[in-house]
User: Fold this.
Amino acid sequence: MFWIYRFFIYICSMISKDLLKGTLKTIVLKLLEEKGRMYGYEITQEVERLTDGKVQLSWGALYPALHKLEADRLITSEEESIGKRVRKYYRLTESGTSAAKEKVREFIDFVTIMGRVLDTGPSLNLA
Assistant:
């Protein structure tokens, strides 16, 4: 599924942040599916790493998405003390695991459909 992240890099350079808002939950669900559990800063760093720094999630984007996913019972959180700090870890619920798979399928279908719609033949210049 690494190609999804690579495609995300490509579309980030081409479209507005408004169009990308719909992919944030998919990205978070997919990362949690792959990694098991993560805390917020770790999620931001992993997205930045996977996208070679081209996508940097802001706290203002990530935490509302995490709270919405938690309210929808797709993820759950647990706090863990690390020294003097408390770190909040997120993990998928059972329904979150199903939702992650469905969101990725939806995204792949969307990319496929958009590829058909936007295909202008061999002269297509994506640079």
User: Anything to note?
Assistant: The chain has one domain: 2-111.
